[in-house]
């Protein structure tokens, strides 16, 4: 729906914010990978954690695709408040947290998975603050009321509401699927790191569950 009470365009460049988000993610990813080179998973838990990580990654991909059916590139045109966006204000990021855990868990360590989630949360928390400022300045009371009644990250099932029908944008849906597939790169990446450790190219100095 088009929001009433819309204000003049905000001075915040949302595209710039999103570019910075991608840059922070890239830098953080390299830093995390450098850290995981020194970590060895607990052998008794390794395979179970890897399976859990793969499930989390698939949930992330499916969940992000589900969100894209509702948001459909309309973030800057209107406030979407139905479907997953009725449960929390940033469900795409919530599923990204799940994907970050899954990517880290492919190392075989729950601890690495949790560190990946923490790093992802730090990045997105900063970005979300800027996005919320943009939306508040652009849509005014419509967004502020939505923000007051809807949690930022923690979904509240009691708030669920849906639409009778949706207008789908296939290009955005496909792009979201492609972005989600990025998390699957953790599978071959951590296999390569494990093989490199076994070949003695570098040694782990820390064993974590």
TrEMBL record:
Entry GO terms, CC: endomembrane system
The protein, known as: Isoprenylcysteine carboxylmethyltransferase family protein
Entry keywords, A to Z: Membrane, Methyltransferase, Transferase, Transmembrane, Transmembrane helix
GO biological process: methylation
Keyword Transit peptide set for record: no
Top-level taxon of origin: Bacteria
Transmembrane intervals: 20-39, 51-71, 92-124
One Pfam family per UniProt: PEMT
One GO MF term attached to the UniProt entry: methyltransferase activity
PANTHER family documented for this protein: PROTEIN-S ISOPRENYLCYSTEINE O-METHYLTRANSFERASE, PROTEIN-S-ISOPRENYLCYSTEINE O-METHYLTRANSFERASE
Major subcellular site: membrane
Entry membrane topology: Multi-pass membrane protein
Record organism: Brevundimonas diminuta (Pseudomonas diminuta)
Compartments where found: Endomembrane system
